[in-house]
Amino acid sequence: MAAKVGYRMEPGTMVWRDAVQSLWRRRLLIGACTLLGVAGAFAFALPQTARWTATSEILVGPAVPPALLDLPAGLDKTGPLGMDLPAETQARVVASPSTMRVVAARLGLSVADDEVQKMSAATRVKAVTDNSYIITTDGSSAEEAVRRANTIAGVYLEQRRAAAQSVLATLAAQNEQRATTTASQAAGLQRSIDNALSRSQDGLASSLRDKQVDLRTSSVDFKDKAKALREAADSAGSTSKLVTPASPEAVTVSPNITRDVSVGAVLGFVLGIALALGSTHLSPFVATRDEAARSAGAPVLTASTTGRRWWHRTARKLDLSELTALGTEVVSAIARRGYTEDGEGAVLVVSASPSPNADGVALAMACATAREGRRTVLVFADVRGPRPDVELGRDAPANPDGLVNLVGEPAHSRSDKARKLLVPGPAPDLQLLMPGSGDEQALTVAPALVPGIVTELRGSAEALVVHGPAADRNHGVAPLAAAVDGCVLVVQCGHDRQSRVSRLCASLEFAGAPVLGVVLIGAHRDDETLGIPVDANGHLLESVRQ
């Protein structure tokens, strides 16, 4: 066996190609979503008042070494004296109205409550670490924003320094007071020592001397600590500083129309792609030739790319020239595939849902067969649907009787009556059996007469075409399928559900009338699929191969 030569696509190539094709078919949706995103960005950006945003960063350290305050070494993160205060609390203090009131006074702005609240709302402080804070504020100009950001940082650092100096001064005064008290107590013990010595109480005198030494030592310690606190107060807050001052070069302005429009366009484009992919993979309707072929388990014989309306899923009625072209292609495809012997046999034309073009396709197929010189009979078995728009022959009556009128006819004479009801069609060698008219009971029984009538007409006609009702009608097409050799399924792209098409094809197959092919109405112009039923591995289905 000779080896196959040709290009073989990787398994993922088909998936990506189908995805790209589906996006291209829905390019109008993607473009509309992109324009919607751009319009939304404009609507968001244009009404806003221009504002400038500046950012500064401060580094906060302990006011004094923790050892000087007899504090553990782990409690030196935040707070004016290294006290363990949460960083988020400090961030709230920076943006608080009390701090903003001082800032407003420093900048010469109004200190009214409303203005202070607005300034506080326009200031954001983020604790990067326990000792680093980023201050972001808005202003009416770049210079104003820079001044505000740097002033807020400076005011907060000054408040920390002033609070530390105040606390250190208080602690120093307390230690000086303790030094004075202990010194006076030590001086008072000297008289008790002298009295003890005069009474020869050496032991008591020695004990009092030891206590006097301890008091004098404590007094000296309190004095040294007070001196250290005074010196620390002079350098309080030296470890806290403005490490990154705000500058005009780093100021950002909002709204930035270019940025906002770009973001809106990107978001709209992504939304459009998501909607396009979602509508493609989640939609239950037939959208492409391949989907129609997979649902029906039969190839797409021909397809019409006109008549599709974006505001309505149902396609409009096609022109006579388009229907003629579709019918001719279907008859040629059936003959090429050898579905019927020498192009002869009975074919049922049925649609998955009511279609304004199913009867036209059946008529075009019958006309194409008759033009080839074969005696053809077209039976309109959709007795509940709209009356077919057919141009009858010269000798045909205006409203001829038809299939429904055969219900009251005895069985032995029904076939002869059916032949008498045949009227000439728009093409030579074509005769038509119209639906006729009758009561509800006659409309219900009429489709069941088709198998017998088709069997009787086979002897006088070389080809029969039966137009059946849509599959979603109350009365199915199973009785009609039993009378024909195969079916041609008319599918409306974007309207018929894939599950409905599959169920219809399964019921026709069970009734003995396999689907010979599909006529797809309303296919997209950019649909490049072939309409050949394949399995999950990309192999042709066995039924089609046979």
UniProtKB/TrEMBL annotation:
Keywords: Cell membrane, Membrane, Transmembrane, Transmembrane helix. This is Wzz/FepE/Etk N-terminal domain-containing protein. Pfam families: Wzz (PF02706). Belongs to the CpsC/CapA family. It is a multi-pass membrane protein. It is found in: Cell membrane. InterPro entries: Bact_polysacc_biosynth/exp, LPS_length_determ_N, P-loop_NTPase. The lineage of its organism: Bacteria, Bacillati, Actinomycetota, Actinomycetes, Propionibacteriales. Residues 20-103 form the Polysaccharide chain length determinant N-terminal domain. The keyword Membrane applies.
